[in-house]
Design a protein that fits this description.
It is a single chain. By secondary structure, the protein is of the alpha+beta class. The chain folds into six domains: 84 residues, no CATH class; 128 residues, ph1033 like fold (Roll); 139 residues, Roll (ph1033 like fold); 190 residues, Rossmann fold (3-Layer(aba) Sandwich), CATH 3.40.50; 100 residues; 88 residues, no CATH class. It contains 24 helices and 31 strands. The strands form seven sheets. Strands 4, 5, 6, 7, 8, 9, 10 and 11 form an eight-stranded mixed beta sheet that branches. Strands 12, 13, 14, 15, 16, 17 and 18 form a seven-stranded mixed beta sheet that branches. The chain has a five-stranded parallel beta sheet with strand order 20-27-28-19-29. Helix 1 packs across helix 2 and helix 17 packs across helix 18. It is globular, with a radius of gyration of 34 Å.
Length: 760
């Protein structure tokens, strides 16, 4: 193939940059110029080599640097910047972080693509950016890019070229609007994240978001490496444990390893795996003496070392290769070969980091997570919304995403389908029988009878208990009841026979099982006399078989007990089955509006069993006999309860002291930073007035009312004012007074008996 520079298109350039970024390709830096693509700087000749390869398969570029190469970019609409004039890499970040939403008001078009292409950031005079500030750029709630301010902002009116685009995008072109040149870093898809702050331009105060933004910015140009060591050559364990490891011998890629690069520290040998993550602190250089020089087991023959700083020390709990090699994202990890350092990809590094974080989170949360918690606060503060996130954080910490509710909701729905999470709403008629155990009428057989019924707590507790017993090997399983039952009745279930005779205790007496209703869990039978009328329940048969239920010798007990004995005799003829390995899971019950029921009555004896040290397997383990006759019932340690409580609802039962001391309480209150400036100011003023009247934070109004995409007038008309009328027992004069210091006129029309609501 020939050198064909004129056939390279803009799309070839964009695809080349995409390839460079996705494969974390190390590029030879340019000396004088960079080409700006999607807000990021790249060496022009390197980009052209990859663009040319994508065009005809030849990885070549035969033009010299500077103008001979730059002209191809400028003709295709790309910006060339002189390194000497911009000094972009010399601009230090200040630590100030702002958020810029790319809509100039509700319903206005997004200007994200425009400012990205122009490499500018828009601001306003009362919130002026400074050189070195970082900007998180959002569309909706999605953070798409991070930008750094490289020049002092100036009024947009100083640049007449901006006006046509500003007018088209419905952005104010006025002296109070400013702009600044910036360096853009458009996030890769797996780096984008959600930030629920609704204000258009504001400072970012959330610590987690701030740290995430700074980490993403600092690693934007990082290369990724595997630094591999042999434990028979060097005592890595001692070096890492004692914080002595500050450099690493390198034999390859010496000229490409630079400060800020990310490193997977890999130890080879029998227990090969990742033992730490690190960051490069200096380029490779000759180092003859280090803090850890005495830990060499053989002669150190290579003085060329790169400085490193360990960022994640997992020497005590390493990620062993035999445990993680099947993980998605690590399929091509370059480990196990001869050598001290190899290239890695960003995906591989992030996958390892995720595994470390998940393992740490699981270990920490298993030890520290409260078993019983209540999310409390006034209405509209996100208690139910956050209960979903909290449930996922407990039940599946490795999949929990601290800033993405949508992701958590997907996990939540999956765990509900799998029976690991349950959700129930309490109400005034909710009872112990609904929650734990009771009886319910049944007329399916043509006659009225009452069956034992398990409530939602009992059902979830049994699931959690079985998982706990199996996963912790506390249950000696010989032959599982279900296996015995299905084996014994196999021919009847498959309709190969019409009945199965069961001998009774009275000699010569028997009854016949005629069918098994799998869906209903019922065993149909005929008596010695040939009569019918009652069914046996599979769940009761199982409980008697396992010893948790004593049915007695009267009534249906004359049928249950001989059938259980017959099953046990049959079980003795079967081969014992080993219990399959099972992962210990955490089960979560969410009780929404927990204080709307008479909770002391609903919980009953559970009030004691819920305590940490009274749970199964704990030091002061307690078991009770339930009202249905079931013996040895206890609450397993892997069952968690999350309740939500509306503090403004005083018409319902409050949690008594006995139950209160068994729960950890987490308060939720209005988060004004979640709203735009006008909504935030209004809600603050309203809440200040409410607190002055009520002398309690229980009656504040939450931010969630303003986050439904409705106008302020509609929110006040349909949500806020009706709630205030409840708070103040229908006293319209007090409700009107609440809005006295706001920019909204709220008055009660005594002619039409409606509220007049309008901006002042």
């Amino acid at each position: 193939m020939a050198f064909e520079p004129d056939k390279i298109t803009k799309q070839h350039i964009l695809d080349a940059v995409k390839k460079i970024d996705s494969e974390t390709i190390s590029l030879e830096p340019s000396t004088k110029f960079d080409v700006i693509v999607s807000g990021k700087a790249y060496p022009p000749k390197e980009v052209m080599r990859y663009a040319h390869e994508l065009m005809n398969g030849e990885h070549i570029w035969e033009r010299s640097g500077g103008e001979p190469t730059n002209k191809y970019f400028t003709e295709l609409g790309f910006e060339i910047k002189s390194k000497s004039s911009t000094n972009m890499n010399e601009v230090s970040i200040t630590g100030n972080i702002w958020k810029l939403g790319c809509n100039w008001g509700s319903g206005k078009p997004s200007f994200y693509n425009y400012i990205k292409e122009e490499s500018i950031i828009i601001g306003v005079e009362d919130k002026k950016y400074s050189i070195g500030d970082l900007i998180v750029v959002t569309e909706g709630h999605q953070v798409k890019a991070i930008a750094r301010i490289n020049e002092n902002p100036k009024p947009v009116t100083s640049n007449i070229n901006l006006k046509p685009s500003f007018d088209n995008l419905e952005i104010e072109y006025d002296t109070w609007v400013n702009y600044a040149n910036s360096e853009w870093y458009e996030l890769e898809e797996d780096d984008t994240f959600s930030y629920q702050l609704q204000q258009g331009i504001c400072k970012v105060q959330n610590r987690d978001i701030r740290n995430k933004v700074i980490d993403l910015w600092n690693s934007r140009n990082a290369n990724y490496w595997i630094f591999q060591g042999n434990p028979s050559v060097f005592d890595f364990e001692t070096a890492i444990k004692n914080n002595l490891l500050e450099d690493w011998t390198v034999s390859a890629h010496k000229d490409k390893i630079k400060k800020g690069d990310k490193v997977i520290l890999w130890i080879s040998g029998k227990n090969s795996g990742c033992y730490s993550l690190a960051e490069v602190t200096s380029e490779a250089q000759n180092i003859t003496q280090s803090k850890d020089s005495h830990l060499w087991k053989t002669e150190d023959k290579n003085p060329l070392k790169a400085g490193i700083k360990i960022t994640h020390n997992i020497i005590e709990t390493p990620l062993l290769w035999n445990k993680i090699k099947g993980t998605k994202g690590l399929e091509n990890l370059k480990v196990g070969n001869q050598g001290t350092n190899f290239t890695a990809t960003k995906t591989e590094f992030k996958t390892i980091l995720s595994l470390i974080n998940n393992t740490t989170a699981s270990n920490n949360k298993a030890d520290m997570q409260a078993k019983n918690i209540i999310l409390y606060g006034p209405p509209g503060t996100g208690k139910t919304y956050n209960s979903i996130d909290k449930a996922v954080e407990i039940a599946s910490p490795e999949r929990y995403n601290f800033n993405n509710h949508k992701v958590n909701k997907g996990v939540f729905d999956e765990l509900r389908r799998n029976g690991q999470i349950e959700f129930v709403t309490f109400h005034q008629n909710y009872s112990y029988e609904d929650f734990v155990v009771g009886i319910s009428p049944d007329v399916t057989s043509g006659t009225l009878r009452f069956d034992k019924r398990e409530g939602i707590f009992k059902q979830l507790a049994e699931r959690a208990k079985q998982n706990w017993l199996t996963a912790t090997n506390k249950k000696e399983i010989t032959i599982d009841f279900n296996f015995v039952f299905n084996s014994f009745f196999a021919k009847l279930i498959e309709e190969e026979v019409k009945e199965v005779e069961i001998p009774m205790k009275s000699k010569g007496y028997k009854f016949k099982v005629t069918s098994i209703d799998i869906d209903e869990g019922r065993i149909k039978f005929t008596k010695q006399s040939g009569g019918t009328g009652h069914d046996l329940l599979v769940k009761n048969l199982k409980a008697i078989y396992e010893g948790s239920l004593d049915y007695g010798v009267e009534g249906l007990g004359v049928y249950y007990n001989p059938l259980v004995e017959h099953l046990k005799e049959f079980a003795a003829t079967l081969e014992p089955q080993n219990s399959a390995e099972e992962e210990l899971k955490r089960f979560v019950l969410i009780i929404d509006e927990i204080n709307r029921a008479n909770i002391s009555k609903v919980f009953g004896e559970l009030i004691t069993l819920l305590e940490d040290d009274k749970r199964l397997g704990e030091e002061n383990e307690l078991k009770i006999t339930l009202p249905n006759g079931e013996k040895e019932f206890g609450v397993p340690p892997n069952l968690y309860i999350i309740g939500t409580m509306n503090t403004a609802d005083k018409s319902i039962a409050l949690i008594d002291i006995a139950l209160r001391r068994r729960f950890e309480f987490i308060g939720y209150y209005p988060e004004y930073e979640m709203l735009n400036e006008e909504e935030s100011l209004l809600l603050k003023k309203v809440n200040e007035a409410v607190f002055k009247e009520k002398k309690s934070a229980d009656y504040l109004i939450g931010h969630a009312y303003f986050m439904k995409g409705q106008t302020i007038q509609i929110v006040l008309q349909n949500k806020v004012v009706p709630l205030l009328m409840e708070y103040f027992s229908g006293k319209t004069d007090i409700v009107s007074k609440i809005f006295a210091d706001t920019n909204w006129n709220v008055t009660y029309n005594t002619t039409n008996f409606i509220w007049d609501i309008s901006p002042r």
